[in-house]
Amino acid sequence: VSKQHAIMPGQSYGLEDGSCSYKDFSGSRNNRFSTPEQAAKNRIQHPSNVLHFFNAPLDVTEENFYEICDELGVKRPSSVKVFSGKSERSSSGLLEWDSKSDALETLGFLNHFQMKNPS
Predict the structure, then answer these.
(1) Measuring CA to CA, which residue among 112, 111, 78 is closest to residue 95?
(2) Which one of 31, 106, 111, 117 is CB 3.0 to 4.6 Å from 57, fit for a cystine?
(3) What is the largest CA-CA distance in the chain?
(4) H-helix segments, 1-119
């Protein structure tokens, strides 16, 4: 929870890459908090040592995640579970680390990581 009640567009500043530090998403259809009814549907997920992945290539393996973690210089998961048969377009599953801090550090690097998909 932020100490500020609102973000004021006039308080934005330019970032090193030239982009603005503020963008208004209040009108986006992806905003999960645009109405009280939508906000009530959200489930708060507390930090965990288990991360859920989705939209990965169909043929993703445990070894793929080890290679990505090695490439990014983060700790490998201690356990990988790929769910089978959920979709014909992508795969999903769970990655588990020994500690929450290892999982959260890796999340910072892996979030929105683009995996190579030959098809």
Answers:
(1) 78
(2) 117
(3) 49
(4) 36-41, 62-72, 100-110
Structure confidence by residue, pLDDT tens digits, 103-118 = 999 999 988 888 877 6
Secondary structure (DSSP) of 47-104 = --SEEEEEEE-TT--HHHHHHHHHHHT-PPPSEEEE--SS-SS-EEEEEE-SSHHHHH
Which residues does 12 contact at the CB level (< 8 Å), separation at least 6?
A: 20, 21, 22
List domains and CATH numbers for the chain: 47-110 (3.30.70.330)
Phi, psi (deg, nearest 5) at residue 8: -100, 125
At 61-104, the pLDDT tens digits run 999 999 999 999 999 999 999 998 767 888 899 999 999 999 99
